Amino acid sequence: MEKDRNFDDLAKKFADNIYGTAKGQIRQVVVWQDIEYILQELDGVSPLQVLDAGGGIGQISQKIAALGHQVTLCDLSSEMLTLAAQEIAKNGLVDQYRLVHSPIQEISEHIAAPVDLILFHAVMEWLVDPIATLTGLLENVKPGGVISVMFYNYNGLLFKNLICGNLTHIEQGMPHRKRFKLQPQQGIKPDEVYQCLTEAGFDIMGKTGVRTFHDYMHHDRMGDYSFEQVLDMEQKLCRQEPFLSLGRYIHVYARKPLIDVTSTVMTNSNNSNKDKG
Predict the structure, then answer these.
(1) Annotated binding residues, as ranges?
(2) What are the beta bridge partners of residue 207?
(3) In the chain, helix, strand, coil percent, each to 5?
(4) C-beta neighbour count of 117 within 10 angstroms
(5) 21 burial level (CB within 10 Å; 0-12, 13-18, 19+)
(6) What is the pTM of this model?
(7) N or C: which end of the chain has fewer CB within 10 A?
(8) Which residues are annotated as part of the binding site for S-adenosyl-L-methionine?
(9) What is the end-to-end Cα distance of the chain in Å, rounded?
(10) What are 197-232's pLDDT values in tens digits?
(11) 144 phi and psi, to 5 degrees?
């Protein structure tokens, strides 16, 4: 039986690879811009109750906690939680955090009530059933709350293989190459994520491509450029099509209406049937 990926064996290497590189820096900058917008939209609620689902060492949620909000961070990896605890303590944020060793699918057992904001970043691509897990998480967002989802983009993975000439690999369905332990196990199709959100009644607030061109550059034989230029151009292009949809990751964030649209529709339908009776 397949299991969700647990990073106990690679926690330190994974954290360094994600956050200690140019790739990680671009990701942090463009996603944080979206988070700032989300926090503005949630202004008036203080402190926010935030769930960092599969949060690893909590790079983004620590910045939110530093603003005075309360964070529950859950992860399947006890080693990742140990690293998170060290970082949280180093940054003086212990009072803002609660760490939970739990699969995401069981997080409702560990929180008292739905929360204002859920972060679900770079987790879906490591799960056996990513859409079902996302669907379950949506139930833990309170009315008026927001979910922030970042996922490894199937379209970006396909494009990368196309320009690298890996056509046989594409024809085989792009199976995960186990020798690349830090490469996500699968690409997630954006339309499936968007459909999941809208079918649950959420309103999509925005979408951002994360690394729309950086990963496609041949860094050993390109013209003159600096990292600052790359970062600036990524920020300029990341919310524009077609670049957005070619990002190696996509960040989409959506809000749950204050009124439960689904139950309202059902109630109206039942009332209509009663009138006919």
Answers:
(1) 27, 54-55, 75, 121
(2) 252
(3) 45, 20, 35
(4) 26
(5) exposed
(6) 0.87
(7) N
(8) 27, 54-55, 75, 121
(9) 51
(10) 999 999 999 999 999 999 998 766 667 888 999 999
(11) 90, -10
